[in-house]
C-alpha cells in the first residue's frame, strides 16, 4: 500500500495565494476599480465625484507614485490619489494639473469601499500615505480640500485647517488643510 501525501497532489508545490493585505501605488489598470469606489462614495454625499474616470487615468499615468491603494486578497478596498502642486494654496487649476516641480502633494481623493467603511481604514491608509510621502525627497507638505463635516477626520490625521479654499465646485465650498511632510 502506497499512501500519497496531500502535498504531492499539488505536484509537490504550494498553491499560490494572494496576500491578505497589500499597500501599493496604483497603476492605470486600477482606474476602473478606483472610479467605481469613488463614484459610490461621493455621489451619494455631494452628487459628484472629485475625479472622473478620464482624470483618474490622467493622474495614474502622470504620477502613479503619488497614489496608494489598499488591496485585500487582490481586491481594491481603499485608495488615495495625489499630484504635485507648486503654489502655497490650491486654486481651480489644482483640480486637473500635475506640476512636476512642485513640492506640495495635492491629495485629490481618499475613498473607502462601502463594505469596509467605519473600520478605521481611511485613517490607516492616510497614515501609511503620509509615511510614504516622507520617503519622497521632493515632498514638503500635503494639501487637501474637504467639506466642513470632514475637517475633524483630517485633523485626527494630523492636518491643520488653512481656512476657506479658493476652489468651489458648483455650490460646494471647501476648507483647505495641510500636513507638513518634512521641515
TrEMBL record:
Lineage: Eukaryota, Metazoa, Chordata, Craniata, Vertebrata
Family affiliation: Belongs to the acetyltransferase family. AANAT subfamily.
One GO MF term attached to the UniProt entry: aralkylamine N-acetyltransferase activity
Name of the molecule in the record: Serotonin N-acetyltransferase
Protein's UniProt keywords contain Transferase: yes
Segments passing through the bilayer: none
EC number: 2.3.1.87
Keywords noted in UniProt: Acyltransferase, Biological rhythms, Cytoplasm, Melatonin biosynthesis, Phosphoprotein, Transferase
PROSITE patterns: GNAT
Entry-linked SUPFAM superfamilies: Acyl-CoA N-acyltransferases (Nat) (SSF55729)
Amino acid at each position: 500500500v502506497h499512501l500519497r501525501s496531500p502535498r504531492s497532489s499539488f505536484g509537490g508545490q504550494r498553491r499560490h495565494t494572494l496576500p491578505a493585505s497589500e499597500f501599493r501605488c496604483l497603476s492605470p489598470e486600477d482606474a476602473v476599480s478606483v472610479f467605481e469606489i469613488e463614484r459610490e462614495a461621493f455621489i451619494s454625499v455631494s452628487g459628484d465625484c472629485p475625479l472622473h474616470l478620464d482624470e483618474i487615468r490622467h493622474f495614474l499615468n502622470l504620477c502613479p507614485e503619488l497614489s496608494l491603494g489598499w488591496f485585500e486578497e487582490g481586491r481594491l478596498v481603499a485608495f488615495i490619489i495625489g499630484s504635485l502642486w507648486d503654489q502655497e494654496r490650491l486654486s481651480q487649476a489644482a483640480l486637473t494639473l500635475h506640476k512636476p516641480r512642485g513640492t506640495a502633494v495635492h491629495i485629490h481623493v481618499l475613498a473607502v469601499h462601502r463594505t469596509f467603511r467605519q473600520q478605521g481604514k481611511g485613517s490607516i491608509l492616510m497614515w501609511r500615505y503620509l509615511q510614504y510621502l516622507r520617503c519622497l525627497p521632493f515632498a514638503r507638505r500635503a494639501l487637501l480640500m474637504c467639506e466642513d463635516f470632514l475637517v475633524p477626520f483630517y485633523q485626527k490625521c494630523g492636518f491643520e485647517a488653512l481656512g476657506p479654499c479658493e476652489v468651489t465646485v458648483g455650490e460646494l465650498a471647501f476648507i483647505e488643510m495641510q500636513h507638513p511632510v518634512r521641515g
